[in-house]
Write a structure and sequence with these properties.
The chain has helices at residues 2-12, 25-37, 42-56, 67-82, 110-125, 141-152, 165-178, 196-209, 224-236, 254-263, 284-291, 297-307, 310-322, 328-340, 343-350, 353-361, 366-377, 381-385, 392-402, 406-439; strands at residues 98-103, 129-133, 155-156, 183-187, 213-219, 241-245, 267-271, 279-281. The chain is an alpha/beta fold. Strand 2 (129-133), helix 6 (141-152) and strand 3 (155-156) form a beta-alpha-beta unit. GO terms for molecular function: 7S RNA binding; GTP binding; GTPase activity.
């Protein structure tokens, strides 16, 4: 991946005082290969390499930076620029209801994203949201959105039997006006491939609803195909932005890097988990860091604030900063937070590559989260603060209390020690030191 290739780049450039066309050639070849592997569209790669070259050549390597690091810095900046630089906010500045039209192929995640967006708008922007389904073709599609409405607490517009998409849209708009909805999210039908009937239908809906946002929903795992579909949609519909879904899957980042370049429209939201809280505003800088393997640490913090009791999170942060010892209560809280954040899978994705590897070695999976909490619950407060007092008899008592074996208690204590080590390293030398120690 890009991270590995770039560490190679850092080595080849050791000892150079200035970046020149010759000494960065090898490095740029690595970058090009990495982008190809990430499934980035070819024209995008060409332009990207040209820009990095232009910015890098002649640059003096300042201060404590190595030339390789300087080049990686340029690559990082250009990756951010490629995704639009700034975060692109959702636009709701219109006479209510602000209509958001969701477009895209079948399975892209339109319906799910409609529900998630409703939740996000209600929670983060305090909006009154109406969910409307114009997908009359798949029998379960309307019920799917209705269920999401119930789960999020958004209002759902009831569709009458036999109503056509245009009739539904017009009636819903009327309803939203009369009931003072701030936002109306309109889910639409998708096909397996782009076809004229679908494009005609959504164009008609667009003309009728005059949405302030027409969001193209696309599955990140589709790579180059995603980009081609985005291009076709952007030519047929006045899109205002993109929702890139399933970034939690094994997407290689190519779609995220190519979409803006190909469609001219920024990614406004990213789908990062199947559950309803799994939608986030898209941050080009964080995505760039993630592609470079630095991990989305900021995103993790933001998600933690959303998913867990903020006070608890702050307590933990303070404790970590003050360098106080990390005890089993903190360990248990981490497990609770993990569950709130969508389990290990969602969490791993956000960690820097090396740290995530280390966490994998600790072998925690979602099933053991509940058991772990059970074991810790069976300990006395004193034992949680000082796990070193746990000798055989105490362990037997705890195992019996939690309905597990002593081996399981031991395993948990070993995991706790690993986590404690990681926390100590984070306290002492920060990220860099920890990552270095893990490589070695
Ligand atoms: P639609 O046909 O475009 O409406 O697609 P759906 O909203 O029905 O989503 C298709 C499938 O993708 C469903 O199983 C969703 O749960 C799943 N999905 C959508 N967005 C995400 C995401 O961001 N992450 C994950 N893991 N799954 C998603
Ligand atoms: Mg759908």
């Amino acid at each position: 991946n890009l991270t590995n290739r770039l560490s190679g780049v850092i080595k080849t450039l050791r000892g150079e005082a200035r970046l020149t066309e010759t000494n960065i050639q090898e490095a740029l070849r690595e970058v090009r290969m990495a982008l190809l592997e990430a499934d980035v569209a070819l024209p995008v790669i060409k332009e990207f390499i040209a820009r990095v070259k232009e910015k890098a050549v002649g640059q003096e390597v300042i201060g404590s930076l190595t030339p390789g690091q300087a080049l990686v810095g340029v690559v990082h900046q250009e990756l951010i620029a490629l995704m639009g630089g700034q975060k692109a906010d959702i636009n709701l500045a219109t006479v209510p209801p602000a209509v958001i039209l969701m477009a895209g192929l079948q399975g892209a995640g339109k319906t799910t994203s409609s529900g998630k967006l409703a939740k996000w708008l209600m929670e983060q922007k305090k909006k009154k949201v109406l969910l409307v389904s114009c997908d009359i073709y798949r029998p379960a599609a309307i019920q799917q959105l209705e269920l999401l409405a119930r789960q999020t607490g958004a209002e759902f517009f009831p569709v009458q039997a036999g109503q056509q998409p245009k009739e539904i849209a017009a009636a819903a708009l009327n309803f939203a006006r009369r009931h003072f909805h701030d936002v109306m999210i309109v889910d639409t039908a998708g096909r397996l491939a782009i076809d004229e009937a679908m494009m005609a239908e959504i164009s008609e809906l667009e003309a009728l609803l005059k949405p302030i946002e027409t969001l193209f929903v696309v599955d990140a795992m589709q790579g180059q195909d995603a980009v081609n579909t985005a291009k076709a949609f952007s030519e047929a519909l006045p899109l205002t932005g993109v929702v890139l879904t399933k970034l939690d899957g094994d997407a290689r980042g190519g779609a995220a890097l190519s979409v803006l370049h190909v469609t001219g429209k920024p990614i406004k939201f990213a789908g990062v988990a199947e559950k309803l809280t799994g939608l986030e505003p898209f941050h080009p800088d964080r995505m760039a860091s993630r592609i470079l393997g630095m991990g989305d640490v900021l995103g993790l913090i933001e998600e933690a604030q959303r998913g867990v009791d903020q006070q608890e999170a702050e307590k933990l942060a303070k404790k970590m900063k003050s360098g106080k010892s990390f005890d089993l209560n903190d360990f248990k809280m981490q497990f609770e937070q993990m569950r709130n954040m969508g389990g290990m899978g969602a969490l791993m994705d956000k960690l820097p590559a090396q740290l995530s590897q280390a966490a994998q070695n600790v072998k925690v999976d979602d099933k053991v989260i509940g058991r772990t909490e059970g074991i810790i619950n069976s300990m006395t407060p004193q034992e949680r603060l000082k796990p070193e007092i746990l000798k055989a008899s105490r362990k037997r008592r705890i195992a019996a209390g939690a309905g597990v074996t002593v081996q399981e208690v031991n395993r948990l204590l070993a995991q706790f020690e690993q986590a404690q080590k990681m926390m100590k390293m984070m306290n002492k030398g920060g990220m860099t030191k920890m990552l270095r120690s893990m490589k070695g």
